[in-house]
Amino acid sequence: MHSAAEQVLAGLDPEQRTAVTAPAGPVCVLAGAGTGKTRAVTSRIAHRALTGAISPRHVLAVTFTARAAAEMRARLTALGVAGVQARTFHAAALRQMRYFAPRLLHGRELPELLDSKVRLVTMAATRAGLRTDRAAARDLAGEIEWAKSSLVEPGEYVVAAAKAQRETPHEPAKVAEVFTAYETVKRANGVIDFEDLLRAAVWGIEEHPDVAEQIRAQYRHFVVDEYQDVNPLQQRLLDAWLGGRDDLTVVGDASQTIYSFTGATSAYLVDFPRRHRGAVVVRLVRDYRSTPQVVGLANAVIAQARGTEARLRLELVGQRPTGPEPELRIFTDEPAEAAAVAARCRQLVAAGTPAREIAVLFRTNAQSEAYEEALTEVGVPYVVQGAERFFERVEVRQAMVALRAATRSIPGETPLPAAVVEALAGVGWAPDTPPAGGAARERWEALAALVQLAEEYAATPPVLPIGEAATVERPVTLTDFTEELHRRAAQQHVPTVEGVTLASLHSAKGLEWDAVFLVGLAEGTLPTGYAKTAEQVEEERRLLYVGITRARQSLWLSYASARSPGGRNRRPSRFLPQLDRSGGTERAGGGGTVRRGERRRNLVVSCRICGATLLAGADRKLGRCPTCPSDVDEELLERLRDWRQRVAGTQRVPAYVVFTDATLTALAERRPERPEELIAIAGIGPRKLGLYGESVLALVGGATVDAVCPEESLENPS
What we know:
Blueprint: H1 3-9, H2 14-21, E1 27-31, H3 37-50, E2 59-63, H4 66-78, E3 85-88, H5 89-104, E4 112-113, H6 118-127, H7 134-149, H8 157-163, H9 172-188, E5 191-192, H10 194-207, H11 209-218, E6 221-224, H12 232-242, E7 248-252, H13 267-270, H14 272-275, E8 280-284, E9 286-287, H15 292-302, E10 317-318, E11 327-331, H16 334-350, E12 358-362, H17 368-377, E13 382-385, H18 394-406, H19 416-424, H20 438-459, E14 463-466, E15 470-473, H21 478-492, E16 500-504, E17 513-518, H22 534-548, E18 551-560, E19 585-587, E20 594-596, E21 605-606, E22 613-614, H23 617-622, H24 634-651, H25 655-658, H26 661-670, H27 675-679, H28 686-700, H29 705-708, H30 711-715
Parallel strand pairs: 1-7, 1-8, 2-3, 2-6, 4-5, 6-7, 9-10, 11-18, 12-16, 12-17, 13-16, 17-18
Antiparallel strand pairs: 14-15, 19-20, 21-22
Helix pairs in contact: 1-3, 2-3, 5-10, 6-7, 6-9, 7-20, 8-9, 10-11, 10-12, 15-22, 16-17, 18-19, 18-21, 19-20, 24-26
Family: Belongs to the helicase family. UvrD subfamily.
EC number: 5.6.2.4
Binding site for ATP: 31-38
């Protein structure tokens, strides 16, 4: 074998090597988070090229982001292979269509490509008799994109939307009407959208044999990354490129399917072996990104998954050294949660963790404001990933203008929350059920966040000096609140080069950090209250799984019992493992805020042998998985049983009342030497420590049962 090809194989684990050296033909790489999928697929391309099996210029590697394509090209160059085309679906189609347009369009160039549908959708909605703002137009555009990506025509939309159980921004027939009008307006303007681009590429290949022959002669070997995110239109284009050939390598993880609302489906990944008979299927499960503790929690969360994607569920095996246990924190309200997260971020930065290696992840972009404010208050810089900062959002800027104007028309004695609701009515917001559609709902939630801010601000009115010696409290006014909002906006508009990342779980996909905070893990937020079907709920579970697997070293999970101080009580997310939530509450400093769970730092118990998260009570007592080897001291276990029998007889209680069999086994395995080690074993609390701790420690230290339980003490237990 060529020495360079041998070097490509060096350092690969057995599963990666299997993927790299698999023969030409269909190969499906099921790659869990952090398992080195990019290394595997680039090494496969490089190995085949360096051994002469393929020519790099005949390879088309398709990714879903330009960043992933650039990373793939860089890795291939580092491996000594140049000339591979690594592009997104749209970039590859655009390149081909620009080349073939004169031939396909009778000498004309490819029409201009729309950057955004919103303007034309707004025009189409007007034709259909709908008045829309930008958020509503974005939601209609999203529905049109879903339909076109799913190969659904305007006349088929109503039936297709019902079958897919879509939550449509308007009545489906009206959406179909806008869809039809959009296509008309688009043609009249002489432009095409991104879905048209892919459809044109499909048409060029399927309907023009000369184009198909030239493209297929150029591209003979295909690699598709993130295959669980392919939609029907992209699959149609891939099939056209292949033209019945089977030199195809796909890489994906069904447990990271989180974009089904856009038309993406894991069905092609799940069905790959059936569609491609004789396909090689390789599972990458060695996680090189996260500690065994993080991996164990991720496995525990996804182990409960149901549905189609669960058929390809992977159980990851952590490869990194042991790390801190994930923390689960419970707070009285969201401001307390945000303040605690910001304080911990400040501690991490002070201890040497770069701010860029810290992320706070949440379900919706509207949740960012509390963390922007909290980080600003403690002086920690931040950047918002994949969205505008809260006070830069169009709807928030419009609302602030409306609030300022309302200070002149709303009576000053009006309670602040009511005044804010009244002012926001001027920009079309009402405190009722949020509208359907993602963008419109996000707009509604952003304005609802302003109402929540008003409620919190009204609950803590400022103390204003009168004269020199006296102070009085007065209710805050709408003017006070608008000034507070402008103060916050000014603080949060300070540009930062590097900072803690604030991101939604969707925009965090494909990224990773040393420290990750997963916040707002309450029912109604994750899963969102808009997840109605079993499939939608399962996608919410996968969102949490994606969030967990972003963490390399430390992981914090938290939720607030209420949105605002004194608010309605909420339950923790159903996706969190059923952890031991016993323990007291601790009164924190700073105004006496009660923060539940401050003593619950080791709720997530990991196996001391393999690092997996332990959920069963008996396993948590033992401190290991039932399948991991036991290192029990049999002689000590026998002495403990003898001692327990004597104590139970003396106290006239069943033996299990003293200690259960699982606790005795844990004692014989873990052999505690100090009281703090003894009480760390599940099943031994302060009471039993006081009753039996001295005797147990003596037995562990080698004392005999007779020495610990002399005859006179048995005869006179008092």
